[in-house]
Amino acid sequence: MAQSFDPLHKPLQTLAPRLEELSNDQTEWLNQLSAENTSLDSLSQELGAIEAIISKVPEYLNKIALLERDMIMIQNKSSSLKQRAQTLKTLRQSQLSKEADLKAVAASEAPVSEQVDYSEEVDY
């Protein structure tokens, strides 16, 4: 039996390893693309979470502004109350001083026999 001569047999034998190498490269690239796609999906989810947080920033800034306003109002009221307390303390001291002065004047103007010592209580 005579062997038939195929002119493409030799080039096909030399191309087969290269075709297998290209197929392996293509499989590797597809795997890399799949991994990158998974990574992109994960990043997309993270980006969605970040966008949700960012969308709430104006609301939080508004709440902070309201809290700052309330804090200033409280500080102002506290300051006002401190001033009122100081005024009342001063008025009370003035009143006590005037009462003491009046007692002293009354005691000095009354005859000695009518002067009463209020420091001691007497049982009747």
**Given the structure, what is the number of helices?**
1
Which of globular, elongated, flat, extended, rod-shaped describes the shape?
rod-shaped
Percentage of residues in DSSP E strands? under 5%
Largest sheet: none
Number of strands: 0
User: Which stretches are low in confidence, meaning pLDDT under 50 for 5 or more residues running?
Assistant: none
Q: What structural class do the secondary elements suggest?
A: mainly alpha
Can you walk through the features of this model?
The chain is rod-shaped. It has one helix spanning 9-109. It is mainly α and 124 residues long. 0% of the residues are buried. The protein contains one helix and no strands.
Task: Itemize the secondary structure elements and their pairings.
Blueprint: H1 9-109
Question: In summary, what is this structure?
Answer:
The protein is mainly alpha-helical. The chain has 1 helix and no strands.
Features:
single chain, 124 residues, mainly alpha, 81% helix
